[in-house]
Amino acid sequence: xxxxxxxxxxxxxxxxxxxxxxxxxxxxxxxxxxxxxxxxxxxxxxxxxxxxxxxxxxxxxxxxxxxxxxxxxxxxxxxxxxxxxxxxxxxxxxxxxxxxxxxxxxxxxxxxxxxxxxxxxxxxxxxxxxxxxxxxxxxxxxxxxxxxxxxxxxxxxxxxxxxxxxxxxxxxxxxxxxxxxxxxxxxxxxxxxxxxxxxxxxxxx
Length: 205
Hints:
single chain, 7-stranded mixed beta sheet, 6 helices, methyltransferase activity, SAM-dependent methyltransferase, Methyltransf_25, SAM-dependent_MTases_sf
């Protein structure tokens, strides 16, 4: 078990769903950007680092049928499964590290809110992008949300690498074209604020 896995399993074993800073009752921007990326309810969508996020609930309610949630913490995914109940059987749940995972299929939409910014080592970011390229076909879209350049320097006691759309474009490479970017002031459960940016890219080749 990696240090990253141990850290996040411990977080979800010791804190409630709404006791973490990134908790959102309604993931409105993520849902809107996924709808804009692909409104086809048969689109294959993966939420990378999805953890216990309520995005999968919202996508199921929206009628999307081919959903995958990947996270390195089994504890986090268990929280989501229990919350969703019987509908959890409609989702493909993958326990894996997004820097070492080996995709076995491709996706129309890759979504990541607040996972990529924990990759402070350039080699980890390169490994993540390698897997993203394996998993997203030409024409597919990628949505990555991170702390913005004026956002926090740490989260959950760990350092983060803050980004804007330009730095994300440089990480992804020229075959990913920026479609849109949005900013968000996220309010934590204890009402502090965090500056996020969301960037959506289309793969051209």
